[in-house]
């Protein structure tokens, strides 16, 4: 793999670039917290060839949100559910906006 290809992968939010230890250090938490998020099925880390958990930047953002809620006193199971609902709400808003735009374009005759 070329250096350019490697750099491109590291810029990919979904590329599993972080080991469990590094991810925990970045988040200021423990590996156990990350395992708990996996058990709650909030994030599913990829596994290296050796079977070690690897996390992406996207997964670290989700874990950071979970930590924020837990630090505020929310039980981890509830924090995971809140994050899932927030994600579903954001997706519904995105779909509604697309439909609204499509309807407006059709009504205005710009999509004909």
Helices and strands in order:
Blueprint: H1 3-11, E1 18-19, H2 20-27, H3 31-39, E2 46-47, E3 53-55, H4 57-71, H5 76-108
Antiparallel strand pairs: 1-3, 2-3
Helix pairs in contact: 4-5
Structure description:
- With 112 residues, the chain is mainly α.
- It has one domain (7-108): Multidrug-efflux Transporter Regulator, Chain: A, Domain 2 (Orthogonal Bundle).
- It is built from five helices and three strands.
- A hairpin with a 5-residue loop joins strand 2 and strand 3.
- Helix 4 (57-71) packs across helix 5.
- The mean pLDDT is 89.
Task: Enumerate the spans where pLDDT stays under 50 for 5 or more consecutive residues.
Answer: none
Q: Quick check: average pLDDT?
A: 89
> Main beta sheet, described?
3 strands, antiparallel
Proper CATH architecture: Orthogonal Bundle
* Rg calc: 19 Å
- Derived structural class: mainly alpha
Strand content: 5-15%
Q: N-to-C terminal Cα separation, in Å?
A: 46 Å
Question: Could you please say which CATH topology applies here?
Answer: Multidrug-efflux Transporter Regulator, Chain: A, Domain 2
Give the C-level CATH assignment: Mainly Alpha
Total beta strand runs: 3
Helix content percent band: 55-70%
How many structural domains are formed by the residues?
1
Enumerate how many helices there are, as a single number. Answer: 5
Q: Sum up the overall morphology in one term.
A: extended
Order of helices and strands: HEHHEEHH
* Biggest β-sheet: strands ordered side by side in the sheet: 1-3-2
